[in-house]
Amino acid sequence: MHLPVPRGDLSRELANALLCNPSGEHAANLATVATGRLASASDVLDDGDLQLSLFMLYELHYRGFAGVDDRWEWNPGLISLRTQIEEAFEQALREAAGPVPSVEPSSSEVAQALFALAASDAGPSVSKFIQRKANAAQAREFLILKSIYQLKEADPHTWAIPKLEGRAKAAMVEIQADEYGNGHLPRMHSELFRQTMRGVGLRDDFGAYIDRIPAVTLAAVNMISLFGMHRRHRGAITGHLALYEMTSSIPQAAYARGFRRLGYGSPVTDYFDEHVEADAVHEQIAGRDLAGGLAEDEPELVPDILFGAQAAAAVDALAGAQYLDAWEAGRSALLAGAEAGAGAVA
Amino acid sequence: MSGGDCASEAATITVCPQGPLLLRGDFEIVDAEGQSIEARQGPVALCRCGGSAIKPFCDGTHKLMKFERPK
Questions:
Q1: Inter-chain CB proximity A281 and B44 less than 8 Å
Q2: Which of A51, A162, A211, A242 is the most exposed place for a label (fewest CB within 10 A)?
């Protein structure tokens, strides 16, 4: 993907550094700028400069950027910068998630608590809007907003596999194998989404629309990288995946109906149809075997499991509210600004 | 242990509390006439509440129906 257009001092300094050869000379300056930005940030989750910077730092560990030396991935200065932002990000996620209830460390109790949390989600319903009201331009915006995760769907959770053992590991592998189409490319979920993007005339390469993606949407993706890449967050990543799976099958059916209402059929709707069926399976495995299995193996992780789930629900609710506010008011939910990488929505 | 592509693996059915039946291993699903019903790769969830729009498979509708079946 292209290097994103900066959204403030920190992402500008970072982008400038990434265009140079990897070295230590940028580290001190980046740390100083980050300290200033973090001190002045009123809402870390909705801060475009911070979330884009974090996204760029994580992306070095995925597919990288055109024109950026891959050796930056493990540059100590950038790891240090990432740690600095992650501390503030984690604190903001904990505030958004709120206190977690006390739950017995048994598979059935943890699964029940996660299903109850998913059912209590009273946030604004993007899926109902897409199903009943969205026009074609809004439906395309919805795909663009989703694309910053869905075109690499499953990758951030895969980080957790080597950090898990036993029943939880088997469950994670079973779910992820399914996400990756059991090794069959046309069935890979990210590939199905690529097909959906192409089907409505959008670009299907990862990150093409990065400059149109609002901060909170980036925060939702950064959260999965944070949880997946840190061993100490192995509880949170299982709770996050469980919540995602448990809040998926019914909304996916609504998305499919919305796109059919707008005149689309297969292959555009295949992605949604596949998820109705797949996530009805995954939510069972994720609740009892993944999160529940981990809770039985490591009972002290139960609060982390619930934190991951509550943080996922909270950030998704924030993002959904932003989309609906914009669409209900007749505005675009995308950033208007930079157009470096991709064309505007028709 | 992923699903129906493992020819040598006996089928197992997991009864999910207040949820579907999870089917793994080597299985074939047929309709009343004995005609094969195509199932997705990997484990499948069979509807137990009667509310699914994609029967015989589960679509999560039991969560909206307050489906309560013994564990």
A1: yes
A2: A162
Q: Are residues A114 and A84 in the same domain?
A: no
Structural domain for B26, as ranges: 1-71
pLDDT in tens, B22-53: 999 999 999 999 999 998 888 999 999 999 99
Asked if A92 and A144 sit in the same domain, the reply is no
Of A108, A276, A277, the CB nearest to B17: A108
A125 to A122, A166, A320, A327, B22: CA distances (angstroms): 8, 36, 7, 12, 29
Inter-chain touch B3–A182, beta carbons under 8 Å: yes
Task: Tell me, yes or no, whether A281 and A200 share the same domain.
Answer: yes
pLDDT digits (tens, 9 = 90+) for A314-345: 999 999 999 999 999 999 999 986 444 444 34
Mutation target vs A (from B9, B22, B38, B62; most A CBs, 10 A cutoff): B22
Q: Which residues of A touch B17 (CB under 8 A)?
A: 108, 111-112
- A266 and A201 share one domain: yes
Helix (H) or strand (E) holding A50: helix A48-59
Number of domains in chain B: 1
Q: Testing the interface with B: which of A260, A277, A283, A288 to mutate, by most B Cβ within 10 A?
A: A277
Interface check for A340 against chain B (CB to CB < 8 A): the answer is no
ipTM tops 0.90: no
Under a CB-based contact definition with an 8 Å cutoff, are residues A252 and A145 in contact? Answer: no
Q: How far is CA B11 from CA A334, B4, B36, B43, in A?
A: 47, 8, 16, 10
Query: What separation, in Å, do the N-terminal and C-terminal C-alpha atoms of chain B show?
Result: 23
Beta bridge partners of B24: B12
Q: In the A/B pair of chains, how many CB contacts fall below 8 A?
A: 74
Q: How many domains does chain A have?
A: 2
- Across the interface, do A250 and B41 touch by the CB < 8 Å criterion? no
Q: pTM for this structure?
A: 0.93
* Same domain (yes/no): A29, A142: no
The mean pLDDT value for A21-30 works out to 83
